[in-house]
Structure formats: C-alpha cells, structure tokens
Specification:
Layout lengths: L12 E5 L3 E5 L10 E2 L9 E7 L4 E6 L13
Antiparallel strand pairs: 1-2, 2-3, 4-5
C-alpha cells in the first residue's frame, strides 16, 4: 500500500505477508529503504490484505489467509 502523498524523500509504504505481519517504511524511494515492523500488537502475523483510507489517514489490515492448507492461519 503506497501513501497518496508519496514524493521523493518522503514516501510511506506498507507491505504485508501471509505469515510476516505488516512492515512500514517512510523512505521507500531511497536506494536502501529502512523498514519497521508495525503489527507487533496483533494476535497474528497472517495478513491477507491492506487498505488505506486517505481521508482519515488510517491503514486497515485484514488478517487471515483465504487459502486453506496445513500451515494456514485464521484471522482475528
């Protein structure tokens, strides 16, 4: 998810993975962006989707995996 205010020198981006939680960088356009783990307070690292509401500056994270398998994690 890319913040709508992304410009060179100040570009916030969030990434998420099915088992890796949510990560954020404020310098996504740098040659070596620095990432910060931001979902440590969640009860799960299983992230299925991200959505950003620019009007309220709120990032929504949908937890859980849509595909069932032996190592899938349910959402909370």
């Amino acid at each position: 998810m890319i913040a709508p205010t992304c410009v060179a020198g100040d570009c916030r981006v969030w990434i998420a993975a099915a088992g890796g939680g949510v990560w954020r960088t404020d310098n996504a356009l740098a040659s070596t962006p620095s990432w910060q783990f931001v979902s440590g307070g969640f009860a799960t690292n299983a992230i299925g989707t991200l959505n950003y509401d620019a009007a309220s500056h709120t990032l929504y994270a949908g937890t859980g995996e849509p595909n069932s398998s032996g190592d899938s994690e349910a959402g909370v």
